[in-house]
Amino acid sequence: MSASSMDWKLMFNQLKGTCRLDLRRALLSPRSLALYFLAFSPLFLVGIWALTPFPTRDFEGPRQAFVVFTVIFELYIRVSIFFSSLFLFVNLYRSEILERSLHYYLLTPVRREVVAVGKYLAALIASAGVFMLGTAALFIAVVSPWGLSELGNYLFSGPGLGNLLAYMGISLLACAGYGALFLLVGILFRNPVIPAAIIWGWEAANLLLPPALKRFSVVFHLHSLYPVPLGRQLLEVVATPVPAWAAILGAILFTVFVLFLAGRRVARMDLAYGGE
Length: 276
Known about the structure:
This protein has 276 residues and is mainly α. It contains twelve helices and no strands. It has helices at residues 3-28, 32-51, 54-58, 62-98, 102-106, 112-143, 147-156, 160-188, 193-204, 211-214, 218-223, 244-267. The longest helix has 37 residues, at 62-98. The relative contact order is 0.13.
């Protein structure tokens, strides 16, 4: 075995070890309660709505009721996934510094860039897995008032299954994009509140931005992937959606670029617990 292949194998094992350690924290620590709350609390409200007479009274079937899911999913992206990513990914480094445990990583013979990527992948697996499951649960809850038979027909004899997989994929890309961005914020800023508020404001104002500026936001590229487009808003500045392949490629390239910046910053990080 050549030296280069041994180096890659070592880096992969180090990455896997870091990922496994942080994945346990992301899913089983007390801080993970915020992740589960943001992912599944909307299901409680949708479940109450599904148990009322309103769905079958106001809609003829799952196809018409699906407009309800598109509105809920938009809020799911902008609130649940956004703030969960903020809390989870910012704290990948901030919590380690505050708990004075980051030096254990930095003193190990592992490249700091590998540690950063491993931490990111652990948080991404945790958040994407939970939110993809939450997306599927919301989807099923919205179309459940018409019974299992109608649900099965919509999923397997109609567009339901394709739409469901598309929205689950959008949840994954949202966690990846926002996660990488907030990982970098957590590394660069001692107090992430102001930069997080700026990012949230930029994403929230996307409807009003000129078409050229809309492209510099995560949510614009996610909208291009919606299988059922959102309705036009009264004050919305209309912009041509990018093709689905370009939106996916753009999200991946954005994530890789931000991770690269985060890795470069971590590699030059000087640890000083006394300043925190």
